[in-house]
Design goal:
The complex is a heterodimer of chains A (about 675) and B (about 290). With about 675 residues, chain A is an alpha/beta fold. Chain A folds into four domains: about 120 residues, Rossmann fold, CATH 3.40.50; about 200 residues, no CATH class; about 170 residues, FAD/NAD(P)-binding domain, CATH 3.50.50; about 70 residues, Alpha-Beta Plaits, CATH 3.30.70.20. Chain A has 18 helices and 34 strands. Chain A has a five-stranded parallel beta sheet with strand order 10-7-6-18-29. A five-stranded parallel beta sheet of chain A has the order 20-27-21-22-23. In chain A, strands 2-1-3-4 form a four-stranded parallel beta sheet, with helices on both faces. With about 290 residues, chain B is an alpha/beta fold. Chain B has two domains: about 120 residues, Glutathione S-transferase Yfyf (Class Pi), Chain A, domain 2 (Up-down Bundle); about 160 residues, Rossmann fold (3-Layer(aba) Sandwich), CATH 3.40.50. In chain B, helix 9 links the parallel strand 5 and strand 6. In chain B, helix 4 packs across helix 5. The longest helix of chain B is centred in the N-terminal third of the chain and has 17 residues. The chains are: A alpha/beta (about 675), B alpha/beta (about 290).
C-alpha cells in the first residue's frame, strides 16, 4: 500500500477564500493510500516546507502531493524539499487548486469539491510515479556565432573575452553587417564605421575567435553542450593564406560596372572585389556570376577568357580552381545573429502581398530606400558623402521621406512596427540639412515612436533646429513628372490633401529577417513567427534563449532592433553562454521520452513529429551482426519532454517519464470513480 | 461559354455603344450573353446614398434572378453596376443576419451563389482567343488605359486586379495588338456622377487626365465605365481650352471589336462626341 502525504496550501487568501482547505485535507485523509494529510497557510514558506520534510521522515512517506498553485510556480521548491528529506524529488507532484480552481470559481462548496477531485487525481498519479535520476551531460566550452553583424561581433567578443573559444560564421565576404553601411548613428551622430571597425579588427585578432567569413552553416546536429556543426566555406577563388590584400587584382579586373551590394546598388564594383576598404578579412573574392573567366568557363570555353587578376597578383594568390570546402566544428552553444534586410518593394515580395507599386520604387530612379540614403550620406559611399540624386547626379533641394512603408500595415505589408525608422528618418533629415543647407526635408509619418534614451530629444532637434517638416499622414502615390517627383499625400492634422514636388523620395521600408532564415531555423530546430523572425523562449523572462536548449538569439533576426538593443541582446546571450560553460556538466530534467525498443516497429512517426530533432535511429543486430530491425531512440540531451512522440506512436512503445500512459489513465480513473 | 448578362440602365441608354460592341465581340468570340429577364436598377449612386438595406436588396434582386434563370456567373459591364452587384454579394456572404434581412425583403429564394464578373475581367479571360483572331490592324496604336476610381476598388470586394497597380486592361489591349502607354492618371477620379451637378469639377479633373494621357503619347483613351466615358467624351470639348487635339475615348470592347475587324458602325463608334472613326479607318487601312 502506498504511503502518500497530501499537503493543502491556503496560499494566504488566494486558495483559502474559495476553497475550504481543511475539508480538502480531511477528505484526502480518507483516500486509499494516503498516510498523511494536512493544510497550512503558506506551504511554500520555510515552516511549510519543514512540515513536508518532517512528515516524510516521521510517516515514512513514499510520495508527496502538494495541492497549491501551478507547478510552474513552485514544483521546483517542493521537489527540492522532498530531496532534502531523502525522497526522490520526482515522487512529488502538485495539484493545481489555485489557477485551475480557486481563482476561477466563486461557489465555495463546489470549488472545494473540485479541489478534492484535483488532489485525488494527482494522488492516483503519484502511486505510479517512479524515482527518476537527473540527467547529466557533458559540455563543450566552445560557441558558434552565426552572423557577423554588430550583434554577432559583440556576442563573439564577449564570449571570447570570457575565456571560451568562438567560431564566427559570416555568409558575406566581410564581417560588419548593415552597421558598416551606415553613415552616422542616432542619437549621437557619431560615425558608424569609426565605432564599428575597431571591433571588427578585434574579432580578427582575437586568439580565441576563429573567423569564417564567406561561409554558411550547412548542417547542425547534437544538443545543448554537444552540437556538431558542418560549415560550408564558399570558394573565394583567392588563397587567403598568400593574399596580402594589396588590391592589385581589383584594379586589374575588366568588369567594373557590377552594382555594388555594399553601396546598395548605387555604385559599381569589380568582379573580384573587397566589399569595402575596411573589410575584415581584407581578402578579395571573385563573384563567379559576373567574372569573365568563370562566365566563359560556364559556357564551355576551354581557353581562359580572362586572367587579368591573376596576372596582376604578385603573390600568385588567385586560384580559379578553388572549390567550396566543408569544416566540422564541435560547439556547446550557438548564437543566431543573422540580422535583417530592408523590404525591397517588388524585388522580394513577402508571400501573399502585392506591395507598394504606387511608390515607384525600382522604376523611378530617385525613389530610394533608407539604406541607399545611408550610402549617399556616407563618406565612403558612391558619391563621397555628397547627397546627389541617382538619376542625374544633381543635388536634391527637396527630399520627401515616407515612414512606415510596409510596416504597421496588415492590409498591404507587415503588421509590426519596424522600430528604427522614426529614428533614422530623423537622422537622415539632419544629415541632409547639414550637407545641403538650403534643402527642405519633409517627412510623412503616422506617429513618431522615439522611445529610447535621448531619442525624443533627437527627433525634436531634427524638427526644431534642422528644420525638418513633419506631416502626419500617408502618401497615396508618387510619379515622375518631368524633372520632379509628384508626391500625392494627405495631411491628417489639417485634413487636407497635399501635392508636393520632390527631387528625391526616401522610403523607410520595413525591416524583415534575412532570406533563408527559415531554412537555418529548421536546421537549428528553433521556431520562428509568421514573418520569419526567430522566436525567443519567453517574450519577457527569457528574451535571448530559444525553445531549443543551447541555441540563443541576438539582434534583428529576433525582431526589428536598433544597434543599442542588438548589442544588449548579444551581451545577454554571451553571458547566458558563459554561465552555461561555467558548469562541469549540464543537468537536465529526466522527464524525457523513452522508447521500448522491443515494441518499436520502426515506423518513425515519432521522428517526423519531434520538434526538437531528438529522435535518432538505432540498428538492432543479432550476435552474428545481422540487422534485425531499426528502431527509434530518444536522445535525452535533446528531448524537451513535450510528449508529441508518445501521443503519435501507433504501437505505444514511447513513454514520457513522469507522464506515462499509466499515470494519465490513473488520473482519469480517479475522476471517473 | 454562356454567361448571364446584366446591362443596367446605361447600356440601354447613354452607353448603347458599349452594349452594341460587347454583343458584337461576344458573338465573334463564341461567348453567349443571356440578358437577365426582368432585370431592374442596381441601386448605384442614389440607391446606396439613401439606404443601406435598399442598396443591397436592389442588386440582390438581380442576383436572385440570375440564380433562378440558371446562371452561375453574371456579367455587369458598367463599373457602377458591377460595384453594386459585387458589393451586395460580398456583404451578404459575410453576414448571415444581413442575408436573412435581404431575403425577407426580396420575397424570393436567394442563395447568393452567383459570381459577378466585370467587362475587363471577362475580356482578359478571352485574351488568347482575341489574340488568335485579331489581325495586325491595331499595331502601333498607342492607347492609355483609364481604370477610373471604381473599377478595381475596393480590393476586398473586387479582387480581380491590384487596386493600386492594375494590369488587366493593359493585358487586354496587348492581346488586341495595340500598345498601352505608361501614364500616371489611370486611377484618378473623373468626377463620376457629378457631370451635371458640378460640371466645372468634372472638366477640371478630366482635363488633367487627358493632358497626362496626351503627354504619355496616347492616341486614344480606353475605358470600361459608362460614367467615365460620358465625362471624358461628352465633356471633352469643354476640356480643350488651349486648342489641344481631341482624344477619342473608346470602350475596351470597341477596341477589341476593331482588332477583330468588326465594322465601326456595328460597334457604335458613330455615337461618340469625339469622333473615333478616323482611328477606326486607320485601323482598317492597316489591314489592307
Amino acid at each position: 500500500m502506498a504511503r502518500i502525504g497530501v499537503f493543502v496550501c491556503h496560499c494566504g487568501e488566494n486558495i483559502g477564500r474559495t476553497v475550504d482547505c481543511a475539508r480538502v485535507a480531511d477528505a484526502l485523509r480518507e483516500h486509499p493510500g494516503v498516510a498523511h494529510s494536512v493544510d497550512y497557510k503558506y506551504m511554500c514558506s520555510d515552516p511549510g516546507q519543514a512540515l513536508i520534510k518532517q512528515a516524510i521522515a516521521e510517516k515514512r512517506l513514499d510520495g508527496v502531493v502538494v495541492a497549491a498553485c501551478s507547478p510552474h510556480m513552485h514544483e521546483k521548491t517542493f521537489r527540492r524539499a522532498c530531496a532534502g528529506a531523502d525522497l526522490n524529488p520526482f515522487l512529488c507532484e502538485m495539484a493545481n487548486v489555485r489557477e485551475h480552481c480557486s481563482w476561477i470559481h466563486e461557489d465555495r462548496a463546489r470549488a472545494t469539491d473540485k479541489a478534492i477531485d484535483l488532489a485525488r487525481t494527482i494522488v492516483e498519479k503519484v502511486k505510479h510515479n517512479r524515482p527518476l535520476q537527473t540527467i547529466r551531460i557533458p559540455v563543450t566550452r566552445r560557441a558558434l556565432v552565426i552572423g557577423g553583424g554588430i550583434a554577432g561581433i559583440q556576442a563573439a567578443l564577449d564570449i571570447a573575452d570570457g575565456g571560451a573559444e568562438v567560431v564566427l560564421v559570416e555568409k558575406e565576404p566581410s564581417i560588419g553587417g548593415h552597421m558598416s553601411q551606415l553613415s552616422e548613428t542616432f542619437p549621437t551622430l557619431d560615425c558608424s564605421q569609426c565605432i564599428l571597425t575597431p571591433r571588427m579588427v578585434e574579432v580578427y585578432q582575437h586568439p580565441r575567435i576563429k573567423l569564417m567569413a564567406y561561409s554558411e552553416v550547412d548542417a547542425v546536429s547534437g544538443y545543448i553542450g554537444n552540437f556538431t556543426v558542418k560549415i560550408r566555406q564558399k570558394a573565394r577563388a583567392v588563397d587567403a593564406s598568400t593574399c596580402n590584400g594589396c588590391g592589385a587584382c581589383t584594379k586589374a579586373c575588366i568588369q567594373r560596372k557590377i552594382p555594388s551590394e555594399f553601396d546598395e546598388r548605387l555604385g559599381p564594383r569589380s568582379a573580384i572585389y573587397v566589399p569595402f576598404p575596411q573589410a575584415v578579412p581584407n581578402t578579395p573574392v571573385i563573384d563567379r556570376a559576373n567574372c569573365a573567366y568563370f562566365k566563359a568557363k560556364a559556357k564551355g570555353a576551354t581557353k581562359a577568357a580572362c586572367g587579368k587578376c591573376a596576372e596582376a597578383c604578385s603573390r600568385g594568390a588567385i586560384d580559379f580552381d578553388q572549390q567550396d570546402s566543408f569544416v566540422t566544428e564541435k560547439v556547446g552553444a550557438i548564437v543566431v545573429a543573422t540580422g535583417f534586410q530592408l523590404y525591397r518593394i517588388g524585388a522580394d515580395q513577402p508571400q501573399g502581398l502585392t506591395g507598394y507599386g504606387e511608390y515607384g520604387y525600382g522604376t523611378v530612379p530617385d525613389v530610394i530606400d533608407g539604406l541607399q540614403f545611408e550610402r549617399l550620406a556616407s563618406a565612403s559611399g558612391p558619391t563621397g558623402g555628397k547627397i546627389l540624386r541617382p538619376s542625374d547626379g544633381r543635388e536634391p533641394k527637396r527630399i520627401v521621406f515616407l515612414q512606415c512603408v510596409g510596416s504597421r500595415d496588415p492590409a498591404k505589408g507587415m503588421a509590426y512596427c519596424s522600430k528604427i525608422c522614426c529614428m533614422y528618418v530623423a537622422k537622415h533629415t539632419m544629415l541632409y540639412r547639414h550637407k545641403v543647407h538650403d534643402g527642405q526635408a519633409t517627412v510623412f509619418y503616422m506617429d513618431i515612436r522615439a522611445a529610447g534614451k535621448g531619442y525624443d530629444e533627437f527627433t525634436r532637434r531634427a524638427i526644431e533646429e534642422d528644420g525638418a517638416r513633419y506631416v502626419r499622414g500617408r502618401v497615396a502615390r508618387l510619379y515622375r513628372d518631368g524633372d520632379v517627383i509628384k508626391v500625392h499625400g494627405f495631411d491628417t492634422l489639417s485634413g487636407e490633401p497635399l501635392v508636393l514636388d520632390a527631387d528625391m523620395v526616401v522610403l523607410a521600408t520595413a525591416m524583415r529577417p534575412q532570406p533563408g532564415i527559415e531554412a537555418l531555423a529548421q536546421k537549428l530546430s528553433v521556431s520562428y513567427d509568421q514573418h520569419g523572425f526567430i522566436n525567443e523562449a519567453h517574450p519577457k523572462l527569457r528574451p535571448v534563449e530559444t525553445n531549443t536548449a543551447g541555441v540563443f538569439v541576438a539582434g534583428a533576426c529576433q525582431a526589428p532592433r536598433d544597434i543599442p538593443d542588438s548589442v544588449a541582446m548579444a551581451s545577454a546571450a554571451a553571458s547566458k553562454i558563459l554561465g552555461l560553460f561555467s558548469q562541469a556538466e549540464l543537468e537536465r530534467e529526466p522527464t524525457v521520452a523513452r522508447v521500448d525498443t522491443g515494441l518499436c516497429s520502426g515506423c518513425f512517426h515519432c521522428e517526423r513529429v519531434c520538434p526538437y530533432g531528438a529522435v535518432e535511429r538505432r540498428e538492432i543486430r543479432d550476435r552474428k551482426g545481422n540487422l534485425l530491425k531499426v528502431v527509434a531512440e530518444v536522445n535525452p540531451g535533446v528531448c524537451q519532454g513535450c510528449g508529441t512522440c508518445q501521443a503519435t506512436c501507433p504501437s505505444k512503445s514511447v513513454e514520457l517519464d513522469g507522464f506515462t500512459d499509466q499515470q494519465i489513465w490513473a488520473e482519469i480513473n480517479a475522476l471517473a470513480l | 461559354m454562356r454567361i448571364g448578362y446584366y446591362p443596367g440602365c446605361s447600356l440601354h441608354a447613354t452607353a448603347r455603344e458599349l452594349d452594341e460592341s460587347l454583343r458584337a465581340v461576344a458573338s465573334a468570340l463564341d461567348l453567349e450573353l443571356q440578358e437577365l429577364d426582368d432585370w431592374s436598377c442596381c441601386g448605384a449612386t442614389s440607391g446606396h446614398a439613401t439606404n443601406h438595406l435598399l442598396s443591397l436588396a436592389l442588386p440582390a434582386r438581380n442576383l436572385a434572378l440570375a440564380e433562378a434563370q440558371g446562371h452561375d456567373r453574371v456579367l455587369a459591364p458598367c463599373a457602377a453596376c458591377y460595384n453594386r452587384l459585387a458589393t451586395a454579394r460580398h456583404e451578404i456572404a459575410a453576414d448571415a443576419a444581413l442575408a436573412a434581412r435581404v431575403a425577407r425583403v426580396l420575397e424570393r429564394p436567394f442563395a447568393n451563389r452567383v459570381t459577378v464578373a466585370n467587362l475587363v475581367e471577362v475580356l482578359r479571360e478571352l485574351g488568347p482567343a482575341i489574340t488568335a483572331r485579331a489581325g495586325r490592324s491595331l499595331a502601333g496604336l498607342k492607347v492609355a488605359c483609364y481604370y477610373g476610381c471604381l473599377l478595381v476598388r475596393p480590393a476586398a470586394v473586387v479582387g480581380f486586379d491590384d487596386p493600386e497597380q492594375p494590369t488587366s486592361m493593359e493585358d487586354v489591349v496587348r492581346a488586341a495588338g495595340a500598345t498601352p502607354v505608361a501614364w500616371q492618371m489611370r486611377l484618378e477620379c473623373c468626377g463620376g456622377a457629378f457631370s451635371l451637378a458640378r460640371t466645372a469639377s468634372v472638366v477640371r479633373l478630366g482635363r488633367a487626365i487627358l493632358d497626362d494621357a496626351r503627354r504619355a503619347g496616347a492616341e486614344a483613351l480606353v475605358v470600361a465605365c459608362p460614367m467615365c466615358h460620358s465625362n471624358l467624351d461628352f465633356r471633352q470639348s469643354a476640356m480643350l481650352e488651349r486648342g489641344e487635339k481631341p482624344l477619342p475615348v473608346l470602350y475596351l470592347s470597341e477596341l477589341v471589336g476593331l482588332a477583330l475587324g468588326i465594322a465601326p458602325d456595328t460597334l457604335g463608334l458613330q455615337r461618340h462626341f469625339v469622333d473615333a472613326r478616323p482611328l477606326a479607318a486607320r485601323a482598317a487601312a492597316e489591314v489592307h
